[in-house]
Specification:
The protein has 160 residues and is of the alpha/beta class. It has five helices and eight strands, in the order βαβββαββββααα. It has a single domain, classed as 3-Layer(aba) Sandwich (Collagenase (Catalytic Domain)), CATH 3.40.390.10. α1 crosses α3. It is globular, with a radius of gyration of 14 Å. The chain starts with a strand and ends with a helix.
Length: 160
């Protein structure tokens, strides 16, 4: 099971789109929690530390968990992150995904971060959803699907 944990007000259309795509990609049940308030987190300017969301997501999810926030996130070694994964839990930020491709980008980042939760690493294939996104252009180039290599690893490790 994957639990989606929205922080503050995330558009229902975005949550439902991500939910439907995750069901399709991972073939598991999806649960959605009620909107949660932002954690008491460390800040860098207007950015929030991504890692501080993970314990809350872990408490609210039985198995795998995906947090979604509109806040701009960072980790100490990077200027910003679209998302991070730690163990079976991850968070994505919609802050830098804005624009007419928001839904498409949000799905890609959600699938990407959950791919990490399922032990997948970054893929060298620029079309694979597991390819590292350093900027929006990278996110726009990749597809929402796993390449054959990553799909085989996922199936071998978790869905055989």
């Amino acid at each position: 099971m994957i639990t989606i944990v929205p922080f503050e007000d995330i558009a229902e259309a975005v949550i439902n789109k991500i939910k439907n795509k995750l069901q399709e990609k991972f073939n598991v049940d999806i649960k959605i929690t009620k909107n949660k308030i932002l954690p008491d987190t460390r800040k860098r300017g207007s950015q929030l530390l991504a890692n501080d969301f993970i314990p809350i997501i872990a408490i609210l999810s039985k198995d795998y968990g995906l947090g979604i926030t509109n806040q701009d996130l960072y980790v100490p070694e990077l200027n910003f992150v679209f998302g991070i994964a730690l163990g079976k839990h991850c968070i994505i930020s919609l802050a830098r995904l804005k624009g007419n491709k928001l839904m498409e980008r949000a799905v890609k980042e959600a699938v990407h971060e959950l791919g990490h939760c399922y032990s997948l690493h970054h893929c060298p294939n620029p079309k694979c959803v597991m390819h590292f996104s350093n900027c929006l252009e990278d996110t726009d180039i990749k597809e929402e699907n796993f390449c054959e290599r990553c799909k085989n690893l996922l199936n071998k490790n978790f869905f055989s």
